[in-house]
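We modelled the chain as a single entity of 131 amino acids. Its sequence is:
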Amino acid sequence: MEQDSNPVYKDERYGKNRELLYKYNPEGNYEKNVGFHEEPERVILQQAWDLFQERIENARQKVLSGKASPLLYYMEKSLADPMNLSMMAGIAFWKVKLHLKPSFFRHMSEKSQKKYAEALNITVEQLKKVE
């Protein structure tokens, strides 16, 4: 990205948020620049977010069809995986894997439900159902 070139894109998906970008100056040193991503970077970012949205929707469909617990949906929605959720909630990894199954989720303790809800920034009632 050239120093003088910092285009402002009028795409509503990206809002008006600027980011801290690093680039080389003519002397070969890093320089900070606050601005907007250029088009190729924006396309890549949008593709990544589209993949996340697809994963979230797949998780939602699994929950609605009874193949997974609502915990899977909220885990995907927070962009976590079972290991991350385990660390965020303070619950053993193997228990998180079990709680992703509907039969184990239904018999989960209230204490575990509160831990998951707190880790995912939702209420216990929300944890029990999908949006």
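As a brief sanity check on the tokenised model: The first helix runs from residue 39 to 64. The longest strand covers residues 19-24.
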